[in-house]
Sequence to fold (502 residues):
Amino acid sequence: MKDKTLIIIGAGVAGLSAGCYAQMNGYRTRIFELHDLPGGLCTAWERKGYVFDGCIHYLFGSAEGQPFNDMWQELGAVQNRPMIKHDEYQRITDGQHTLIVYADPDRLEKHMLEIAPEDAALIRAFCQGVRQFTRFDMSVMYQKPKPLMKGQYWGAMGLKMLPFVLPLLRWGMVPAGSFAARFKNPFLRRAVAQMFSWEEAPVMMGMSLLAYLHTGNASFPAGGSLEFARALERRYLELGGEICYKAQVEKILTENGRAVGVRLYDDSVHSADCVVSAADGRGTIFDMLDGAYVSPRIKRMYDGHMPTHSQVQISLGVKRDLSDQPHWVTHLLDEPVLVIGEPRREIGVKHYCFDSSLAPAGRSSVEIMIRSSYAYWQRIYGRRLYDTEQNQVSDIMINLLEGWYPGIRQDIEFVDEATPLSYERYTGNWLGSTSGWLLTKETMRMLITGVPKTLPGLQNFYMAGQWVEPGGSVPLAAASGRNVVQMICTADGRPFVAQSPN
Ligand SMILES: Cc1cc2nc3c(=O)[nH]c(=O)nc-3n(C[C@H](O)[C@H](O)[C@H](O)COP(=O)(O)OP(=O)(O)OC[C@H]3O[C@@H](n4cnc5c(N)ncnc54)[C@H](O)[C@@H]3O)c2cc1C
Fold:
């Protein structure tokens, strides 16, 4: 049994997690990764001494004893890593009023009541929801893969979930935008819609985020996303795993309905007893496997009707210390500005001065994230217009920043743009998606029922990562890698073991 071999496609969080757990369980594994770095979307890039973080704003599982933390301990990702806790999630301002989104529901309630006493009932209900979710253990849904949850387990999980059924029903299906529209106060009507990044996000998602921020279980790992991914890579290598970088899988090889290995773009062939794809879902199913193992449900999932999230990230290296400024501010604009073909009424600006390792002393790494369609960039890709458009977006943003931080233009030493095509190019993710399927009230159902991690008619093959865990995220990607190894162990009739490093 010791010699059973696994090939894992992708060294993102899901692939590294699958690799670590497979090694803990006595499999011989090799990861093929197209890039020359671990982490996939969980990454950062350094330019002129500035580190621009491309991923983690908050890490579920950052606090000891809290949901998901055991998994990070097993993966060696959190030991000796300071976690930076924010008392406020962000601020939202129209220039006259400011909503400080405190993580502490008592503080938030008091503050929101001061802004809008006329919305007292709604504010109290919302903050009560946040309080309830501080006790919500989301990780119980991921401790075992759904197909392995037997009656007894469902019963135990049901008991744990029971106190949250009503809040989940009440808030799980309400998008932030519709919730915001219930406010009488005109400022809160605009601000609340922006509280959780996208208006379609279920209010429950925002509540659990604030709840975990408050309990310290959604902090920022010091050193940032790439350092976090490197810790996973280290753990995997220490467990005896092997990673081949700059090794892009072209095809997953099958024989008689079984996965038997992979062929890379350099035409080398690698055999294995089992293949796990922790790469893009669409690319895996329709390119690497030629769409030969699909059901009507899978075809429908990938027909383009389901929501995904893609964005442009403008990163700025600023010769100015912004640490006395709130770290994340969303500005509501009086007049919309046309950016990337759409009128925008709100722009979020974030600096990372809370982590001194991310910029040289006295300087600041600043980021602006703008939701943007993949199709827009794809239409102009390969032409000079693509670069012109990127520069234009940065110019518009710098003009706006000048109004909020006077004189900042002359302090900007470095400008970098990433479009949905950059995300696609570096990680292979379909439509440049940052998190697989966007969590909305439609995809919430998939989160509860789960997305199958196997394909019909294909044995010895599994899928892990954000395309089989709606809403994506770093902990769910890692949990899916763990779940897949639990499934493999069960299929091989061996008990699943997991342990933290000594
Ligand atoms: C801007 C941004 C902000 C985010 N914020 C947060 C946050 O605050 N908190 C949070 O928890 N999550 C956040 N996320 C989401 C989170 O980063 C992702 O959901 C998660 O990292 C996905 O991991 P994954 O391993 O499933 O996929 P990926 O990271 O996409 O990994 C897939 C890997 O497979 C490789 N690959 C693809 N095709 C091939 C091939 N053919 N051959 C070989 N290798 C291949 C890719 O290069 C990549 O390394 C954010 C993401 C982004 C982009």
About this structure: The mean pLDDT is 95. The first strand starts at residue 5 and ends at 9. The two ends are 25 Å apart (CA to CA). The first helix runs from residue 13 to 24.
